[in-house]
Queue: 4 jobs
Job 1
Amino acid sequence: MCATCGCGNDAEHVGIEGQELTAQHEHAFWTEGSSRPTNQEGGGHDHKTLEIDVLSVNNQNAQKNRQAFHAHGITAIQVLSSPGSGKTTLLEHTVGRLQKDQITMGVLVGDQRTDQDAERLRQAGCEAKQITTGSVCHLDAHMVAHAAQHLSSWPDILFIENVGNLICPALFDLGEDARVVLLSVTEGEDKPVKYADMFVTADLVLVTKVDLLPYLDVSWERFYQVIQEVNPGAKILPISVKTGEGMGEWIAWLLWQKERARLTHPLSTH
């Protein structure tokens, strides 16, 4: 059970690419000087261990992930939203656009069950690894380190698609350079206020499925106003993968994030 939010069932376990992580699994944390995550003996955990500040441990692991990503020239982008807002569809349409700029992308996908989203992304032309979380409602940095171990090569941009949920994922740093939160117009303009923690942490908010706005009693201006009230510093873009609206701005933002990471972390090899 997750000691932070209480989600999860002790009878279920996290899976990485179909391999179950049991209580006795080995840890694959990034270590200084290593080219890939290295295994460390995990050992058993008693109840006292579970009393450790989970977020503090997660933040330490996230920092290891971030350092390792930068050492290999990887720009990591975490993608968050409620279920059905279009995370996987957006990434499917992003693969080809980045390939035109000779940018490689990889995806670590979090879902409670099935590898359907990872398979969709592989069919779109990028490497994707599935993390199944069982009854846990979010990814953590530990899971990300394990999943990254399964990548066959380092991508220029690594997307970490979190489990669809507007609450708990907001709390967990995964080692990303930037956070993108999707909000579909069909969800209503009140979600940024109701789930403010999620939107406060966003660097970019994509208002998706804007091609449906003519059929709804909400407006783009109202979405923009509400999001800006919650997070004045976030960039806000309307987007529709169906019509292509906003895709150019989305790709430009990604390329800037990659350039920003290269300038900020000059030891990057890319």
Job 2
Amino acid sequence: MDMSSISELMTHDHRSCDEIYANAEEAINSADFEQGLTLWHEFCDRVEQHFTLEEQTLFPAFESATGMQGGPTMVMRGEHLQMREMFKSITASIESKDADEALGQCESLMIFMQQHNMKEEQVLYPMLNDTLPKEATEKQITEALAG
């Protein structure tokens, strides 16, 4: 797939994580807790990879280039922390085979995550496109998400 911007690469990764999430939710809904837990861990690992790329590479580069320390990147980091806590709680519900609790929490997470992703895709990623060096940043993203 040929993607030509930081925004497109990161948005594509959101969609990839969404697919894994949907498969995990489907398995939990079918009371296949073993498969659900496997897919849930895969989802959490992929999202953590995405968060790590943003928090350790993209956000610091943006903050350095703009001098903007307390703006959108700070908000996104705070939301990442909230989602990490939600992941732990959902994991516990899947491990205890409580489908209703897990799916209820998944619904809350999905709403939160969709709002978070929309802010990144419509506000922050375009700012990254305008600020960061295109080729070097795209190479960093491609390498980080491949690993």
Job 3
Amino acid sequence: MYDYFDIHSHLDFKDFDLDRDQVIEEMRKQKVATITIGVDLQTSRNAVELATKHAHLYAAVGLHPADNATESFNEADYLVLVNHPKTVAIGECGLDYARLPESPDIEKQRQKDEFEKQIAFAVAHSKPLMIHCRDAYPDVLALLASKKREYGDVLRANFHFFTSPLDIAAQILELDFTMSFTGPITFAPQYQEVVRYVPLSHMMAETDSPFAAPVPYRGKRNSPLYVEEIVKKIAEIKGKDLESVKQALMETTLKVFFRPS
């Protein structure tokens, strides 16, 4: 059905205001699908609206740990969104300690409270989490390990924009969660070791567009259309043929985001 699946983009962001329809139409022609991601209530609504209009678009709904600190996750506000048939994940949510204010303990607790609410929400609605994690892996992994013991396999999660070392990847695999890789793997050799290490059964490709464009588009606005470059690089790093990697990544995507409830 699709040749490529970009599992994390932000097509509702203003960066696409001038040519959003053209990008989405070109994606359709090139058989590229994406999950467009909410970072708060309004962008979650935008994501669902886009997914409703276009068959090859899907939505994730949730509250980013740091992008909108004035908002608190209210389950009632998200109910109609999570029950939409094109919503396939909760997030992006998680912990972000890279931008802490002068009172870090208060902010850390606020983020943990918001994250826990979304973990429970994801489990209640049988959706995987789209995890955002910066400088907070010990806390994120400890919390998810605790919740995994409580909820078992009902709790599913993908770590988006994964750029951490092997020991972190190993802990994520131990929990049977997945990781998705972005444009930086096409130009930063320090990520090749972890790309080789993570099995295709626990790996996906994403653009995080409009951010972090891959080579040969580096420095330009990113697009879900460029996910092909990331898949090519994964195949090159792993020493496998492109078609087999495309198929394996698609199988992982379907397993994580389209598992029957």
Job 4
Amino acid sequence: MSRRIFIIVLVVILGIVLLSSFSSYNRFVALDEQVNSSWAQVENVLQRRMDLIPNLVQTVKGYANFEQETLTQVIQARAQATQTKVDAGQMTDNPQQMQKYLNAQNSLSSSLGRLMVVVERYPELKANQNFLRLQDELAGTENRIAVERRRYNEAVRAFNQKIRTFPSNIFAGLFGFEQRPYFEAPEEAQTVPQVDFGTD
């Protein structure tokens, strides 16, 4: 009789462990997919910013006296950002590539910020309608980048928190889930480039 009870208790415990492991695995997969989806949105808005830059550069180049060094920095930063790619599924396997990608994007943000500061010295350029339109689109894109970056980091936080807390960390280790990296931007890249188009 006691042996039968022992077997029943053992079966119940094994059943609970199996159900917990299945539940944890499905939760890990759902959170992991949320991170991948959020990262895809980040890449979409970053690509939109890179698509705007050639037209912006062409418009600014029309002003013969515009500082070439600033333009060159933007062009080089865009080229570097375009060449550096990272796959969402390989972030944990290749943290150096992820950091390289983030550095390239942050460098591009800094270069655009400096460009917008320099534009202040060119009243005719500030009044150019094409430039105004591009500046508006760029500002809107920078806002979307900030929003998507925040959503991605929130998804990463939820995933990392899940796989680090007990007893989920046990199942995460068994199933091979690892922490995902955050998208950390320098302070200057967290603000939208601003241009004062006031009539001074």
